[in-house]
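--- STAGE predict ---
source: upstream dedup step, 1 unique chain passed
mode: sequence only
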Amino acid sequence: MTIFESTSEVPLGAETTFDWHARPGALTRLSPHWAQEIVEESYPPIAPGSVAQVKTSVPGTYGLVRRPFSSVHSEGPSRFSFVDELKKGPLSQWKHTHEFTSVAGGTKIDDHIEFSMAPQGFDVIDRGLTHYLEATFDARRKRMLMDIDFLESTNAPLLARKKGKHILIAGGSGMIGRQVAALFSTAGHFVRLLVRETPKFPYEVHWNPNLGILNPRDLAWADAVVHLGGRSIATRFTKHAKDEIWSSRIDSTRLLVETMRGLPEAKRPSVFVCASAVGYYGAKADEPVDESGPAGEGFLAEVCQKWEETAAGVEDAGIRRVSIRTGVVLTSLGGLLKLQAPLFLAGAGGRLGSGEQALAWISLDDVARSYVHAVLYDYVRGPVNAVAPELVTQAEFAEALAGHLRRPAWIPTPGFITEIMLGRDGAKELALADQRVVPEKLQETGYQFAHPTLRDCFDEELGGGA
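--- STAGE serialize ---
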């Protein structure tokens, strides 16, 4: 058996720190994306007998190879503590005790782990895992401090000891939606998720936009409605795929809008924040474009225009509307970065196409925080570009990624390869799109980026390969 210990401090009282860990979404927010992917948090969080299911990364893979790991919670040795122990996973033993103690200026967090990864006699493997745990807990500390700063900047109910808002989220089980829900929940707001399947947890409520099923009482409960639903666009643009991409966005948004409009004025949510995309501007932009820029041409531009037009239908009912035009979200949990990083690790990475086209990107944390920002501040209205302030080309992106992974970027991906994967229209509007988009409105409304540069983003999303 090997023992690992880590100590850190946060500028919150012990009770508040414990309460943060005990809220839904805490594990999602605390976990470095390169270290583990949350499959299902325990519910109630950290309650004795509850089980958390994750996919933990294999050391040295930058989060690109993961294995299932589940743990069961039990009571800790003191008032502000809890324990999780291995239920199933690639270890022979794991017991993690979390303890929170008041100190001058905040709380000391002690993490004590007893583990064994291999049969006796393979101590070198356990020593390697110890190094990996050191990197993981350093990243956990940074993530929690980052979130505390964000909560303080938004006067979060958990910290201000006030009642939180009621937040209803459609698409909350997706990659972005999980982070948005977790940010709201750990801040002290009350979150419910609209789900298409039979609800499993008390915070889930059923809807089926394909059949027009949505209970108006669920919308009347909400102070804010957030819509992140929609079929993935990372596919070949066949007629069937286009129809699904269109209907999954427009029809579901129309159902939400019409239901909110049908509520008595006093029962209506105050704000509707709906997803959109930088595809609104089309696949070609010669100059940097902000939210005042004209709509472009192409299938995705048409989808985004209709999507935003449909969402804006709530404005006649006195509901503030925000459309988040999201860029390419960079995270090791999915999307472009997860697809390209393995090629670079294998020494086969490089720019897409000519490499001259601009990449409108944003980190997963920043896109999630932009939704929270849009909900909480009344002066955020209309379209908002959710992109990082650092404009880069595909060639610059490839060089930065190769540098972080300590690999070459010698092998470009020709345009015809992306056409084979995505079809001609998909390649043009996705992989080879030239989108010089700037976050004018986010910056004007005081948003502070967590990861303003690619280097910041790669450090967060890929770690150092520990």
